[in-house]
Each structure stands twice: as C-alpha cells, then as structure tokens.
Amino acid sequence: MRVLVLGVAFTDIKGFPFGKYDPVGTNRGSVKLTHGGVARNVAEDLARLGAKVVFPLPVDETPLGHDMKARLEEAGVDMTQAISIPEGGSGMWLAVFNERGELAGSISKMPDVSPIHDKLLRDGEKLFASCDAVVAEFDTSCEIAQKTVELALKHRKDLYCIVGNMSVMLSKKELLRQTRCVILNEIEAGKLFETKLTGLLPSDVQTLVWAAGKQLGLKAMIVTMGPRGAVYADYETGDSGIVPPEQCDVVDTTGAGDAFFSAAVMALSGGLDIARACHLGTKVAARVISISESACPEGCSELFGG
C-alpha cells in the first residue's frame, strides 16, 4: 500500500522529572530531544507498519533538519519529495511531563506551511495519482485542506485526516464528510460535537458518537478514550462497538494517538472492518506508550502480516 502523507514536523524537547513533578518549583530530571509532530509521527509509524510512505515534508537546512530526514529515510519513508526550506522554518515543541509520564505543559513554535500548498499546486496531480490512500493534516491551513479534498475526490483516493490544533477542522466540518474515517480522542471529539465526553462511560460515549457523527454526515468514526479504551461507529454499515484498552506499563504517552491512527488507517486501507482497525490501533498504541520514543517500535508490522 502506497500512502501519501501531508503535514509538518516538529523537533520535540521533552523533560521528565526524577521524582514527583512540582509545577511551580525546580524539578531535577532528564531532558530529551526527539523528532515529533503528528504528521511526521504518522509517516514513520505507517512506514514501520509496512506501508510505502511518500512524505513531501518541509525540512530546513540545519543539522536538526538533516537528522530528521535521515531518520525518516531509515524507517523506510520516501523523502525524495521533501521540500527544502530556510533555517527557522520548521516547528519546535517544548513539553514537560509529570512522574506518571503524562503531559503537564507545553509550548509550540509553529512551522511555515506555505511550501506544502505550493507543492500541491505544482505536483499535487502526480502525487495523488500515484498513491493508494492519503493522510493529511488539515489544520495546516484551510487552503491546504480544501486542495487536499479536491485532489482526493478527483483521483478517488481514500482520505484520512490527521488532527492538529483543530482550527481548520472546526471551521470546515463539511470537509470531514469526504474522509474515509474520522479518528479523534475524546477531548477532540468533544470539541467537534460541542459537548463533553471525558468522564462518560464508554457506552454513553458510543451512543453519543453514533448520533452526533451521523448528524454530521460522517462515513465512519473512532474515538479513543485512553485507559477506557475506544469506541467506533461505521455509519454506512451500521456497525458500532467498544474496544477495551491494552494493559501496558506507561513510560511516555507522546505519540500514542498517532500510533493508533496509523494502525487504524493501515487496517482500513487494507480492507479490514472498523472493529478490527480499532483493535489493532489499541495494540500498537500500547506498544508506543511502553517506550520513550514517539513512534512504533520494531515488531509492530507483524500485526499486519509484515
């Protein structure tokens, strides 16, 4: 399966306390620099799961940029369509975690997304024609999201939307009707539906997702709930259900949602039903939570016969 991924990347600077995290005091601990960003994570995850990924990522001409590109290539991502940008154009994410590995606070420096729009205008027809499915970060800009949907419809490609800050998704909800399956966590789904899902019983979330997603005209939807598992709804087949969480030792929750998304996309694009896609997403996310990296570890491709 050949997947086109559209989106940006970040350099993640992550701090972990040695003991109990104090939000107003000094915390001794470890600081790690890793590659991140939802689109970058998904591109690496998909490649490690066995997909042939093409990623026209804007990469700045710095040692950090070169290292990011090299890691993606090592994971099996095709970076021949990468876009060279000036120094300072990439994104950065500063994050602090508590003693349980949960995010306690963060600050983001957003990257320049204009090179992606220019790439779609220049090479979009060729890129979409040569792929089997498209994964796009809609929240880069309205123009990029609309052009992506236009090209996906024209070339009849399954389209999946990566969630960023939800700025475009919330202002252009009608674009979600053109996606194969909308995959969100419970906080994001709550924003989309304009209601609170956190704290609800999984059965109540399932009922709400079925009604609200159907009203929005979605084709299918999965909502993850962390330690409470996930719910799914296929509005075309009428299938709906709840998937329990996989038990694991929590080391770092960063990238778990991206791993779930990638596994679900692999499953759905490979012809599996939404229930199986949800189960596989849960398994892969648990493996990512159990390590300090933000992408799928080796061995996950075996879940897909790789």
Describe the structure.
This protein is α/β, with parallel strands linked by helices and 306 residues long. Helix content is 36%, strand content 24%. It has a 4-stranded parallel β-sheet, sandwiched between helices. A hairpin with a 5-residue loop joins strand 7 and strand 8 (103-109). The mean pLDDT is 92.
List keywords for this structure.
306 residues, four-stranded mixed beta sheet, UDP-N-acetylmuramoyl-L-alanine:D-glutamate ligase, globular, 9 helices, alpha/beta, four-stranded parallel beta sheet
Short description:
With 306 residues, the protein is of the alpha/beta class. The protein contains nine helices and 14 strands. It has one domain: UDP-N-acetylmuramoyl-L-alanine:D-glutamate ligase.
Q: Any idea what the radius of gyration is? A: 18 Å
Topology as a string of helices (H) and strands (E): EEEHEEHEEEHEHEHEHHEEEHH
Number of strands: 14
Q: How big a fraction of the residues is strand? A: 15-25%
Structural class: alpha/beta
Query: With helices defined by DSSP (H or I, 4 residues minimum), what is the helix count?
Result: 9
What's the helical proportion of residues? 25-40%
Give the mean pLDDT. Answer: 92
Q: Which descriptor suits the 3D outline?
A: globular
Tally of structural domains: 1
CATH architecture: 3-Layer(aba) Sandwich
Strand order of the largest sheet: 4-1-9-10
Could you give a short account of the major beta sheet? 4 strands, parallel
- At the third CATH level, what is the topology name? UDP-N-acetylmuramoyl-L-alanine:D-glutamate ligase
**First-residue to last-residue Cα separation:** 12 Å
Tell me the name of the CATH homologous superfamily: Ribokinase
Oligomer class = single chain
> Spans with pLDDT under 50 lasting ≥5 residues?
none
